[in-house]
TrEMBL record:
It holds the Pfam family SBP_bac_1. Belongs to the bacterial solute-binding protein 1 family. It is found in: Cell envelope. It comes from Paenibacillus allorhizosphaerae. This is Extracellular solute-binding protein.
Amino acid sequence: MRQKKWTIVVWMLVLSLFTAACGGGGGAADKKKEETPVVDPAAQPAEVVIYDTTGEKLELLMDKYGNKLKEKFPKYTFEIIPQVNSQTLPTLITSGKTIDIVVESTGVNLMNYNLQSDISDLITKYKVDLNRLEPTTIELQRKMAAGGIYGLPSWTRSLIIYYNKDLFDKFGIPYPKEGITWDELYALARTMTRQDGGTNYKGVTMAFDFGLMLNQLESPTQDPKTGKALFLQDPIKKVFENQARFYQIAGNELPGNRYYLDNQQSPFYKDKTVAMFLTLSGAEKMYKESVNWDVAPYPTWEGKPGIGSQSYPTYFFLTSASKNRDAAFQVLSYTVSDEFQKFSARAGNITILKDTSAMKDFAADLPYVKGKNLKAMIPKKYAAPTLKTKYNATANKELLAALEAVTKGTDVNTALRDAAERNDKQVTSEQSK
């Protein structure tokens, strides 16, 4: 009996030694594995090339985000290339330049040159919480990437009313109010369109194409899959007619029946002969020393109180060409952080966070916006985003041509039908290349 007990004890000792030798129970191999630190991509040297399509000069881009990125990522070497002059995306690609990040709003440039890349894996890997972000900015990405996501939003803009306080004061007319409807704006534009002292004053001009592209009725201008025109379909036709009627007010016509942004904007802030200009927020720096301006919320549709334009976010897109995705992704992740959003809001950029507390110091670094109605730049609710196709520029061009035709006397249906035919012909031609 005693011999059996000793035999059991011996076998238990052997078994425990064997288990320990095999690494069971937290052996040295497991401890080494557990103690291996996760490499922080931001702590390693990396070269990051950013191509910016916004049209701003390099010094402005450095102020907007370049210097902040250099401060945050001292190990990185940044090259920021603005889209100016000969520095086009196809030129850079042809030259063999590797672009890690593309900065733009619609993503059209990204997809035109097949640079899109789904970053869902990196969002999961680095635990980026998309629920912190304004929902429509992510909804647009989901639509664009068929459920995936190509980039992260960094700031946004919305359509608003800039108005010349001096003109309203001159004629004793109340400023445009919060909650103003399109019909009320139309009546106000007619009132402010007049001749005085030999000068012709216009009630309103607008960035017509942006009004269509970011419309509140959430209607695309082209079929998202084919690029074919939807111009004659409601509600986009309704949006077109609504905006076009302002140019049929006597005295408020298009100059020479031609539309281009400069002949809409310059009379507002240079000539000071336009009472209201409907455009994207962010023009404050341009207007600061020229016109006594303030802002009002974008007009609303009857039955849709509080619904503003669609958000027009600027995204940082990680490209498929990047050879260091993890390092480049740290830049995208940082731009949605509380730290960067507070910095960006102080510089006059609208936050893309659902928590808008960063806006309490909005434009604090811009003394020329003190006392302005800046809260009007953020609608109570953004309209749902519509997908912009790679042929979006064609749609914009033909819709502006349709506007010019209408101001010359062509009926809306004919003008839009002709514009749709031109759009479809151009899209088909591009698709066949």
